Amino acid sequence: MKLNKQIIVALVIMIATSALYRVLPGRPYGFAPQIAIALFGGSLFATKKQYAFLLPILSMFISDVLYQVLFQLHLSPMQGFYEGQLLNYVLIAGTAVFGFGLQRNQFSKYITGFLAAPTAYFIVSNGLVWAQGGGYHHAFNFTGFVQTMVDGLPFYPYSVAGTLVFGGVLFGAFRLLVPKFKAI
Fold first, then answer.
1. Which residues form the domain of 131?
2. Alpha-helical regions (H) of 23-155
3. C-alpha angle 173-174-176 in degrees, rounded to nearest 5
4. DSSP for residue 27
5. Residue 183 domain-assigned?
């Protein structure tokens, strides 16, 4: 089956809805759809990888624009654009690699990908925070590294939960809408 107008519309609606969810007030930090979108993009565009990496970046950019508008209107304490943002975009887009093996409907592969991607993101992003002397300013030694990882732990379960929930919604809805779709 080829990517037709209905599939594109369904894809745009799912990505836009996920991006809008990210700016809802009161959600736990880390409980966001971007890693699930990256996995979904990796699965959907396994042969056209540039699109796989573009989906989570586009979703994050839409959310960040909304955050910035809300911040400028004094409706949100969070800015949409911040220092280090480009690195975060690269890390989220990089999790699309975990989606390249999710074209088959194998439950075990989905669970593995849904757990591995946020775990890799957690380790790499917190490792980079530590290596760059991030906001915590822990010593540049093993103890400082461990403390930086511990500081990030409150966000990790929400990241895994968000990936599981949004991954289930994105993959499930798309498979229901397009049951015989093959990766592009």
1. 5-177
2. 34-44, 49-72, 85-94, 107-131, 142-152
3. 65
4. P
5. no
pLDDT of residue 1: 44
Token representation of residue 10: 């369904």
Residue 182 lies in a domain: no
Number of structural domains found in the chain: 1
- The whole-angstrom separation of Cα 175 and Cα 160 is 22
Is residue 19 situated within a structural domain? yes
In a domain, 44, yes or no: yes
Name, in order, each residue with C-beta under 8 angstroms of 22's C-beta and a sequence gap of 6 or more: 32, 33, 34, 59, 60, 63
Distance CA 60, CA 149 (A): 24
Q: Report in angstroms the alpha-carbon separations of 119 from 27, 40, 42, 126, 160.
A: 20, 17, 17, 11, 8
Mean pLDDT of 111-138: 88
For 56-66, what is each residue's pLDDT tens digit?
888 888 888 88
Query: Which among 76, 71, 113, 74 is positioned nearest to 96, based on CA atoms?
Result: 113
Asked whether the whole model's pTM tops 0.70, one would answer yes
AA letter at 49: K
Cα separation, 12 vs 26, whole angstroms: 25
**135-175 pLDDT, tens digit each:** 567 788 888 888 989 999 999 999 999 999 999 988 888 87
